[in-house]
Amino acid sequence: MSDNRNQPKEYDAVLGSQNSTPVNAMVLGGIAGVKSRLTSPIVAAKITALSEAMKYGEAGLDLIIKALQDESMQVKFAAYSLLKDRDDLQIKPQFQDYLPTFEFEVITVNSQGRQISRIKSFARVFPEDLGNGIILEMVYIPGGTFIMGSPKTESKDYVANHESPQHQVTVPTFYAGKYPITQAQWLAVMGNNPSIFKGEKRPVEMVSWDEAVEFCRKLSEKTGKSYRLLSEAEWEYACRARTSTPFSFGFSCDWRVTKNLANHFYFYDGPDDYWCHRNCTPSEKRPQATTDVGSYPPNLFGLYDMHGNVWEWCSDKFHFDYDDAPNDGNSWETGTDDCRVKRGGSWREDISYCRSAASDGCLPDSREEDIGFRVAVVFAQPAVFSSVL
Questions:
Q1: Same domain as 92, residue 109
Q2: Which of 150, 228, 327, 360 fits as disulfide partner to 163, beta carbons 3.0 to 4.6 Å?
Q3: CATH of residue 252
Q4: 327: helix, coil or strand?
């Protein structure tokens, strides 16, 4: 390649979205043009080239497989998404090493608490190495539209107006922590462990909203990605995982069923009741502590501990209803309430507080032995590729 600064370089190719040809740029077509754009330092150019590579048969396929080794996570995901539905057995081992999937079982119960299905599913995940063998697993959450909030028929005595009115929300693709942030992960980033219930695999607790945000900032610095808390809409969408029942596992709120599906407080000594805490005496109580993350079955997206274990901080300000709530999945930052949203219930809450729609709030400097959080990250993708994911 010439050292002359005025000579065009191999990666000086024209993108279709540009209105004119840049000075000193050369336009390459065919597979040669795809190869040139894949050497570009511009991520958007690489992803555009990958989508074009599909036109060129085996030669293009080889380029897509090679892109799985790219340093950019956006490019890796672009290549993976182009390959994931192919049946070519010879390519499976090659991309599995770069963007692995994990397999899990999803359990569904009916309103009587009977298991009506147990299916195998899988999700895409990328591991974030935090050092010293500590890994943060981030799960791909496909974008979609859902109905946020709860109907009055679900709420009964224990749901306030802040779960209504129900409204439609469209959430873009993002990646969410497979588990709440663990004590080992917190220690790897923050250098301390404030939790009461000690255990490397237990969720971190006794952290305020402010501290959770600071964790995200330090994690972003450490990894070079933009980590943050989930918005409340993202959290509920991820929790529901395409379900509309009170829980991602179905209807039942009977502790005899849910004690095996979520870490929550329970007691029961009476006739069946939708909310088992009414008309009951505490003849049997659940051990009062957090459990290791992943101790209970995941939802259809492959996320664990969305019901119970610890409440999870979200980014939004707390509101007493959903009037004028955003419908695009973004964090709701307007309003006068100083509290921040927490979601998911906890080990010391009745199961009714662990429903997908259950929402509450705390002051951002609050620290409790049952409040933790999980993180989200978004990889920007140009429009040319968004339809592939």
A1: no
A2: 150
A3: 3.90.1580.10
A4: coil
